[in-house]
Amino acid sequence: MSDPLRAWHGLAGTCVLLDGFHALKHALRFGAEVPVAVTADRAAALALADALAPDVRDTLDALLTEVGRAAYASLVPRPHPTEVAALAVRPAREAGLARLARTPRTAPVVVLDNPRNLGNAGAVIRLAAGFGATGVVTTGTLDPWHPAVVRGGAGLHFATAVERLAVGDLPAGPLYALDPEGEDIRGTKLPDGALLAFGSERSGLSPELRARADHLVALPMRPQVSSYNLATSVAMTLYHWSLGAPHAV
Ligand SMILES: C[S@@+](CC[C@H](N)C(=O)[O-])C[C@H]1O[C@@H](n2cnc3c(N)ncnc32)[C@H](O)[C@@H]1O
């Protein structure tokens, strides 16, 4: 690329920032369109690819342009230890919504009801990608494509569908809402077509989400412990789904 910094500044407003080697590696593996990628140390980045991601090594070799350390640092909120950054085209919302709406599903959709913490949302997207979930839907004001969420998701937004929707517009399917007051999840088989909904870190499930829920299910928890962290609750629930789904990863 003739002038990567110029290209970067032209695209930064509309593209998704991939911050670090691992985010770029994951995005490429899952088909992201990456128009510009820079590094402050090309030899080190390609050595990382040789060691950790030989499958995308040639793509990275063609894509990565070395820029000065100061120029690299000027492009990112805080320099990443791998000194790699890239911009990816955000998938069209229509495509994400179509993926979420398609039935029958082979894996659940995770719904985060008004999440507040960007790192939690990113961790949940990483979990959804790892378990092969159909997608992650957030309700409320948090942008699930916020740079801090993409950072927390390690570039795995491109491995699943990620959209924000109102509770009234959630995809079809039986909704299992996770709540400590629900029925023990160990007696429940979660269907592949389920929506698995989790409440906000601050206030739990909203009244709208509760009204849409078909089942309330609880994760085992000792008395006097109030609740688990949001992302760990999603991890346990997806793991529980995977145990009953022979085709799950
Ligand atoms: C940090 S908790 C919310 C705590 C919040 N203060 C409340 O009043 O519910 C975030 C979400 O994780 C899920 N969660 C946490 N612990 C759970 C448990 N033992 N059983 C089922 N869901 C749980 C629920 O969906 C909950 O809304």
UniProtKB/TrEMBL annotation:
Ranges of residues in domain tRNA/rRNA methyltransferase SpoU type? 109-239
Query: Which Gene Ontology BP terms does the record give?
Result: methylation; RNA processing
Q: What Pfam families does the record point to?
A: SpoU_methylase
Q: Which domain of life is it from?
A: Bacteria
**Cross-referenced Gene3D superfamilies, in alphabetical order?**
3.40.1280.10
* UniProt keyword list: Methyltransferase, Transferase
Which terms does the record give in the GO molecular function aspect?
RNA binding; RNA methyltransferase activity
InterPro entries for the chain? Alpha/beta_knot_MTases, rRNA_Methyltransferase, SpoU_MeTrfase, tRNA_m1G_MTases_N
Q: Which PANTHER family match?
A: RRNA METHYLTRANSFERASE 3, RRNA METHYLTRANSFERASE 3, MITOCHONDRIAL
State the protein's name. Answer: rRNA methyltransferase
